[in-house]
Amino acid sequence: MQDAPSTVVSPPFGLARCPVGVVPIVWNNADLTDLAPFVPVPTVLDEIARLGFDGCQSGVGFPVGDELRADLRRRRLRLAEVYAAIPTRTDGPLDGALEAARDRLAILRGAGGEVLVAAADLAPERESRAGRADDPSTPRLTDDGLRALADLLHTLARETRTAAARLAFHPHAGTFVETPDEVARLAGVTDPDLVGICLDVGHYLVSGDPVAAIVGLGRRVSHVHLKDVAPEPLERLRSGRLSGFLEALGERLFTELGAGVLDLDGVLDALAGIDYDGWLMVEQDTTWRPPSESAAIGRAVLAEAIRRRR
């Protein structure tokens, strides 16, 4: 009897090698806590595993330390990232900002996480200018403020590296690092070997073109958040008919992948062009649908878009 031919399994290539995670803010929003009923953390983690994600960001109400590590391990999940918001004004980070960021790093270290995602926190004088921050009257980081933020990031990045993790800075609408010019300015004063860029394509799209950002930043892009942007709230935010970023969130500024104005294929092509091999984090801050349904749509749309790249 002739032996059956052996089956050769080709290794994954390109973006298919990237782990796919989810940011659990779609279940419990950290900025608008009264937006929807709280979903218990065990339910959130069960859903993340059921939907086929490889890992997640630490979310609202998540345990820490060995308890979080065990909860993730039972579900075969990884702690992809912990988010650290840095209170910042025009003259740089506020007093105590580094200590607060170190607390977030301790959460990452305690549960075996991989990426510390740092961002300037929402600032009132910038939150109201989201989508219109290119206006000359918009308050901006001073040169000294920029250097102070860079110094903090360098210190935090070195400590993150000591914890066997890495740091990526997240440009964010409604903060002092939102526009393409502000991202370029920060990138220009920070060490690329220490401070990567977490490109959140949805936030970047509020003020710029994320495909151009990937091409321009190249391998500096070390972590990615994938979210789509609904056209109507975006237009109202840019025109000033919404009062700011938080009102736009309430109007469901961000939507499921494939349902908004994001050029997802262009983003993935650009990432493939820089040989990106980091996390692809599906994120959607708010939803009109049940949160698990939105997360499932995002996961499926991304999987199909990656499959088309073959």
Polypeptide structure, described:
- The chain has a single domain, classed as Divalent-metal-dependent TIM barrel enzymes (TIM Barrel, Alpha-Beta Barrel).
- Helices cover 41% and strands 15% of the residues.
- It is built from 12 helices and 12 strands.
- The strands form 3 sheets. It has an 8-stranded parallel beta barrel, surrounded by 6 helices.
- Helix 3 runs parallel beside helix 5 and helix 8 runs parallel beside helix 11.
Amino- and carboxy-terminal Cα gap: 37 Å
CATH fold field value: TIM Barrel
The strand count comes to 12
Poorly predicted ranges (pLDDT <50, ≥5 residues)?
Answer: 1-11
Strand order of the largest sheet: 1-2-3-6-7-8-9-12
Return the CATH class.
Alpha Beta
- Whole-number tally of structural domains: 1
Hey, roughly how much beta strand do the residues contain?
15-25%
What name goes with the CATH superfamily?
Divalent-metal-dependent TIM barrel enzymes
What's the Cα radius of gyration? Answer: 19 Å
Annotated CATH architecture? Alpha-Beta Barrel
Q: Tell me about the largest β-sheet.
A: 8 strands, parallel, barrel
Oligomer: single chain
Class from secondary-structure proportions = alpha/beta
Shape: globular
Helix content: 40-55%
The average pLDDT is 95
Give the SSE order as H and E letters. Answer: EHEHEEEHEHHEHEHHEEHHEHEH
